[in-house]
Specification:
This protein is of the alpha/beta class and 198 residues long. Helix content is 36%, strand content 25%. It has a seven-stranded mixed sheet. Strand 3 and strand 4 form a beta hairpin. Helix 6 packs antiparallel against helix 7. It starts with a strand and ends with a helix.
């Protein structure tokens, strides 16, 4: 079986360390940990790509170089059937989860995430795996402090992480990379059990 991992984000240096790019951060950590070849631009896919093997499983990694709301264009070039979508893993930021948390899910709606919406439209199904990476701050009591309103949300997601948040994000990226390995080698249900409770 062949797995396709898509790390969502925006291209360009100015977006590199922003909250909206955590999907790419997790994928970068995965590529590095698995010693895959460095990501290279593919004009055909309009994405940075790399591929390698995890035990017997072939894995293609891609980071769309379109902007977030057009992520599906690149993904659809590799995922042409519903069967292929079952082994697609989309990694993206999630405002409904606190920074430091991640969640593996399957067959869920986009939850308003434009990148995920674009992928669902392009591959014509929502039956794929997602690794959702939390980016929202929390109160001292553990309550989510999610920005409200389109303008505030748009500013928040393209803001770079503060130093303390960036340190947390480094650990999360590593855990996200481990979650990808678990999904591929142990299956999504096992990965959900292992990573969703952390």
């Amino acid at each position: 079986m062949s797995f396709i991992i898509a790390g969502l984000g925006n291209p360009g240096e100015e977006y590199q360390d922003t909250r909206h790019n955590v999907g790419r951060m997790v994928v970068d950590a995965f590529v590095k940990a698995q010693d895959f070849p460095a990501l290279e631009m593919s004009k055909v896919l309009k994405a940075l790509t790399s591929e390698g093997k995890l035990k017997k499983e072939k894995v293609v990694v891609l980071e769309p170089e379109t902007f977030m709301n057009k992520s599906g264009e690149s993904v659809a070039k590799l995922v042409k059937t519903k069967k292929a979508a079952a082994s697609l893993i989309v990694v993206h930021d999630d405002l409904d989860l606190p920074l430091g948390r991640l969640k593996v899910s399957f067959n869920k709606s986009s939850g308003g995430h434009r990148g995920v919406e674009s992928v669902i439209k392009a591959v014509k199904t929502q039956e794929f795996i997602r690794v959702r990476v939390g980016i929202s701050p929390e109160t001292a009591g553990g309550k989510l402090k999610k920005p409200q309103g389109d303008a505030l949300v748009n500013d928040f997601i393209v803001d770079p992480f503060k130093k303390a948040e960036a340190d947390i994000m480094k650990k999360v990226a590593k855990r996200g990379a481990d979650a990808l390995v678990a999904i591929i080698l142990e299956g999504r249900d096992k990965a959900m059990g292992e990573f969703n409770s952390l």
